[in-house]
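This part of the workshop introduces the protein records we will be handling. The question running through the whole workshop is how a given chain folds. To make this concrete, we reproduce a full record directly below:
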Amino acid sequence: MAQFGWAYINCDDVTDPAKGPTGSVQVHHADGDLTGSAYLVYHSSSTTGYNPNTLLLSGTLVVTGAISASTYHIEDIAIIDATGSTYFGDGQTDIHARTGSLEVYSDSALILKANALNGQTTIGGFQGTYKRVTSTPFTASVSQTVLGIDTANTNITICMPSASSAGAGAVMFIKDQTSRTSSRVYISGSTGTSQELIDSASYYTLSGTYPAINLYSDGKNWWIF
């Protein structure tokens, strides 16, 4: 004898099984029902006020795997916990600002601390950028901290970078590394068409054997200390 399965004659109850607002993502429940919520909605067009093809979640998202995205727009971050190399910015004009203090460690040793409470910065094992000077005139750059002059018995002129570009508090150390006899080292505050000063003078002269000079910027001119 032949056997027949169930056949639905009146299908009005299954013509639109989805529930929830337009665009809501449907969730399959154990009892077989499909339901949607206004808290998880897919916007296919811009008529809703969102960009087309936007999935909107109003609530908390918990991810146990990895997230891959071409762009992240984050408004508020409570906790950051990351390992490995991290890269920020894609241009020289990028600024990464933070509120609060900053501490950097190498193993267990504190090598940099910027204290937001008193404005003090502590640096352990400070090492500036070194540049060996072998030609004249030599124009120093803001990124150079230590200049070592390595040309003997020839007058050397070093043009300081703009004090305004370097900013207030910038420092530079210049050391003659040669046994100079009759020649001189001239440190000029002139930067192109503008005239900046070193201790209220247009230039400063180093003479003798192995002289050195330390300078700092107040944002307008250079000063010896």
Remarks:
- The first strand starts at residue 27 and ends at 28.
